[in-house]
Amino acid sequence: xxxxxxxxxxxxxxxxxxxxxxxxxxxxxxxxxxxxxxxxxxxxxxxxxxxxxxxxxxxxxxxxxxxxxxxxxxxxxxxxxxxxxxxxxxxxxxxxxxxxxxxxxxxxxxxxxxxxxxxxxxxxxxxxxxxxxxxxxxxxxxxxxxxxxxxxxxxxxxxxxxxxxxxxxxxxxxxxxxxxxxxxxxxxxxxxxxxxxxxxxxxxxxxxxxxxxxxxxxxxxxxxxxxxxxxxxxxxxxxxxxxxxxxxxxxxxxxxxxxxxxxxxxxxxxxxxxxxxxxxxxxxxxxxxxxxxxxxxxxxxxxxxxxxxxxxxxxxxxxxxxxxxxxxxxxxxxxxxxxxxxxxxxxxxxxxxxxxxxxxxxxxxxxxxxxxxxxxxxxxxxxxxxxxxxxxxxxxxxxxxxxxxxxxxxxxxxxxxxxxxxxxxxxxxxxxxxxxxxxxxxxxxxxxxxxxxxxxxxxxxxxxxxxxxxxxxxxx
Amino acid sequence: xxxxxxxxxxxxxxxxxxxxxxxxxxxxxxxxxxxxxxxxxxxxxxxxxxxxxxxxxxxxxxxxxxxxxxxxxxxxxxxxxxxxxxxxxxxxxxxxxxxxxxxxxxxxxxxxxxxxxxxxxxxxxxxxxxxxxxxxxxxxxxxxxxxxxxxxxxxxxxxxxxxxxxxxxxxxxxxxxxxxxxxxxxxxxxxxxxxxxxxxxxxxxxxxxxxxxxxxxxxxxxxxxxxxxxxxxxxxxxxxxxxxxxxxxxxxxxxxxxxxxxxxxxxxxxxxxxxxxxxxxxxxxxxxxxxxxxxxxxxxxxxxxxxxxxxxxxxxxxxxxxxxxxxxxxxxxxxxxxxxxxxxxxxxxxxxxxxxxxxxxxxxxxxxxxxxxxxxxxxxxxxxxxxxxxxxxxxxxxxxxxxxxxxxxxxxxxxxxxxxxxxxxxxxxxxxxxxxxxxxxxxxxxxxxxxxxxxxxxxxxxxxxxxxxxxxxxxx
Lengths: 476, 476
Fold this sequence. Notes:
By secondary structure, the first copy, chain A, is α/β, with parallel strands linked by helices.
């Protein structure tokens, strides 16, 4: 008994049994208690330490379960050979080396990539997650369906039907951890022997991913209705990547006539597909939401890509594909080779969020919040109509501001920055040197203002600064 | 006031304000209250309903925030045009159609793919997740680092150093949602112009993924030390895929001599790499854990693939790659094009789980639990030494049983099944017709017994049945 150096602190927040556990574990680790050495019986130790026997039993059980002790029936507890046990020292040095995050030195950031997280229903999300974990449903920790949980896919099917006018079966829906992943998965099952046609400017991130994956890429001229189908036909592309409900970054809503032309293009040849990236169609402030192109896809030519990044939060990493029936049939076997990338707990949390009506309420609240910001910013920008004009105001959470006083995009960004306001260049979204090719002039004089992350007060103040920054330029 | 049909139920579990909210929302949705119609003031309505004014205010605020009402200053509340609002009906029909999961009709399933989830520390995981959500750290809902959270990568670096003998920097670690995803990502950044050499039998899932991605594949003969390096040299492969700590499914632990030969092979030519899949090295029951090959990778030739699927739970979907320095330099830009596939909440939960020592304790407990099952099953199988012998017993959570009485794999599976026990064919892990080529005979007479998911009682009972099933075969 003398070997055991246990001095208990009954005032500590650490329970007594854990103190005993820690002392014995340390003694075994340091070799003070040697392998095969017998430990005092729990009765003897509890008497010696003046604690209840169950306290000692609890400590012994813990040590037993972690392999520090072994119990020999009718004999007692013995210390184990512990060289094979895991013992992780705390390495705090590494943590101290964490790279410092660069702080951007601006007061108001019109980033087009953010969302308003102040309005995210944390409480609800937390409650649902907690309940799912409470259910103690250990199945959720086993590997789930490669396509994603059936319940979630059914709920998304129902959402698409009601909110986006899309009719599909849960079987056509594939859940994945973000759009990038789903494009990667698509390339793995479709192969990369496709030429993909894109608009310019476009969602450059997707362009870079297609480029990385080795696709042949081309750009097709746009007009006020979006991608020109004559140009698409000439391009020799097999896949057209479009955002018909709200083109990014120009904000064009593709009219029905162009949609039908696009669908006809796809139907004209076997193996042609349209990728519809429906990334932020949820937020439209006047009139009904524009239905998805997929909703009129009678010939099963549209690969629909949806995400909860914009409408819930970027970090939840849940996106989904809806595959056309024919394509699904051809590539289902390949698809099922890849295990799901989204944890089942996250999937079931989202499922409950959809099912219990929280998503509907959240979307309506966000629509109202973004709508007010949208209106405020438009009103403020109208005051600047002497030197700029607004486009892309039909949906989404950003606007385009084109300077009409001869100011360049670069100059506009620089002047805004001098006032502590960060706005973004449209030219960043251009592919290649297409501005020169298509003779469009707006690219070099247009900036992007995303307003999701700024409050109404901030928007008003920031807009005032922009007016100061831009209003004093003398027209050429 | 007469138009409002509100009858409150003070005994309901639904709060009064929510009842009022529901009534008015429904009246607006059904058109009983028309767009632009004025609603009673909250004072009037509260008097009429005999509830407090704050109750009505709460209901009005909710309706306001979701866009059903608008407030006109100094005038009052008006119903909105609601055609643009989201209204999801509950579609229960679809849910009723959920495919029924096929029940396998066996009493004991020796699946090699499961893990023992009864011992998963749900409580701890839940507590950590809850605390992370409580922190109300809204940053966690924004998109994180493409490689994964720095803190988690640092914690993994520290774990690899201490438990696997691997020295690397957090910068070399890339977090991803599962091994399949990481192999997909690797193919996207490395390209697929590689010939990959694999063992046979091997982890067939990886083989199928490489095949799907369009890699040229070849098999290299194995001996008792694992992949034969002479064969590898002849194969013309640029990448060797191996599991040196515990080959799946044969359970071979690659000795140091073979490891060094393998590393020499990789060093002999520019652009050669070894993928080390270290999928279940955590569980070894005798002696120290076998260090990872990556630990002796002086020439930076080993791409290390680790996972928490086996050691924590398959459904948490967190795996990681450790890239060699040179490769990291070459492909970092491409890597950063792909957003992280793991939610930051999950990453931070795992980080805390590692940092607070829970992972260490969990591993030691699982090691003890699996160790007892391992021992019990070995003991039971020893009773059958008259007609079978055991291999692959050095680590992991499965064993191989080779019939020595002339019984084929197929027959063994069939007989076990007749006793209500499911065992698995080794031949499933073979690539092509290599059994015939290499003249190995064990493949056709060997079955796999995974013991992670069965309790000790179940293992004892199941082993008894196997003895009955297999012991009565008359040797040829």
